[in-house]
Amino acid sequence: MYQGNTLAQALRAASVGREEATFAIDQDSQQSISYGALWNEAERIASALVALGVQPQDRVAVQIEKSVTAIALYLGTVLCGAIHLPLNTAYTSAEVSYFLTDASPRVFVGDPAKLAALTPVAQAAGVQCVLSLDAQGAGSLSDVAAKAAPIAQAVARGSDDLAAFLYTSGTTGRSKGAMLTHGNLTSNAEALRDLWQFTAQDVLIHALPIFHTHGLFVALNVTLLAGGAVALHRGFNPEKILANFATATTMMGVPTFYTRLLGQPGLTPEAARHMRLFISGSAPMLTDTHAQWKAATGQQILERYGMTETCMNTSNPYVGARKAGTVGLPLPGVEVRLVDGAGQTCAQGEVGGIEVRGPNLFKGYWNMPEKTAEDMRPEGWFATGDLGQMDEDGYFTIVGRSKDLIIAGGYNIYPKEIEVLIDAVQGVVESAAFGVPHPDFGESVAVAVVRAEGSDLTAEQILAQIGPELARFKHPHHIRFVTALPRNTMGKVQKNELRRAFTA
Fold first, then answer.
1. CATH assignment of 236-401?
2. pTM
3. Distances (CA, A) of 259 to 100, 253, 285, 299
4. Which of 46, 58, 403, 445 is the most buried (most CB within 10 A)?
């Protein structure tokens, strides 16, 4: 089924002939949807998009709440050969404006509650069609799809054709659109399905958002490839998640999920007895969290490592030693190496820049050929910007990020975005944003601010001015005033020194 469309054919294969099998159980309404109903809705959405003028390789941008219909929209976009562009639901109108202007989507689907503000933004960016979709699956998109006949045939798309854009942070300028192909997404999901031994008997607790790699391309694609089911949570409620352990088999989450579950009195080996696998990623997990989880449940969390540009790169094994504090071994078909500043391979135990090569590697950055060329190495290697070590068994440990990204609760935050806004506040000379350890989110945003002479500017005043321009997860948790920013002889701000001062 869906022959010729690489990703759609792969995602559908496990459910062919199993149309009545459950794909999702909505944990709020307790309603279930079958695979047959899911793909029928996806086919109708694909047909509706084509009727609206969507052509192969056109972008379909979405900023909507999580729902089964939102998942069907992703699949429908793939079926009609277009490119799925999910946007964080926390992004402000100003942030959405940048993404829409940069990506030039033909269609934008937004939350009805925000559409009054976002419609003029979309129109100014040249978007030809604006539709709505809420968390219950209602809206103008559903209305149009309900009247459409299912698409007769999936649009042919090969492994090298684009399937999605995901925007990521970078070292200069604004966010970059990472272009992911059908082959990238298919090969990576297949490797993870096999490595983690997902089958049609699995029920995955899905409490992640579906606007980034983890929740969309790992959790959903792996489940679809296996023909399993998802217990769909729109948000993370530790009490509800724990109750779900009795009927589910697996969970994918970020460290925050596990730290919050550890606070639940009912977390016991008996409560986790039905679960076979707990996976964590998107941010480093403290070794203490690993130990506490093992003591509370009797099970070892499996940690892995990936990024927007590559999907997943490494994973601790399903069968074999899971080393706390490491992100495991390279996935089958994926190569990982560490290099020094001269590009030479690092010896075991040495810290080096992590480079990746394989079928998971993205096609490049949208409209940024210079940045693509900067990060791509000869012979197909990609410089991730992360720093790591490899032990005697080939397990990798992430020790830092050369690009100064802040990862809070699994979300990437680019310091420059925050610094530009703070520097524009009256009474600020300059600022430096960086990540500091946080027991729940992994990291939180801290900012050192140099005030103008005689200024009595407060942290509260700064937050009041920059808050409307930033998604909530980007808001600084700590603002400290300093007389000067520490710099090296080249004039570069030494954020490590600031980080040490803030955490001392």
1. 3.40.50.12780
2. 0.85
3. 36, 11, 10, 15
4. 46
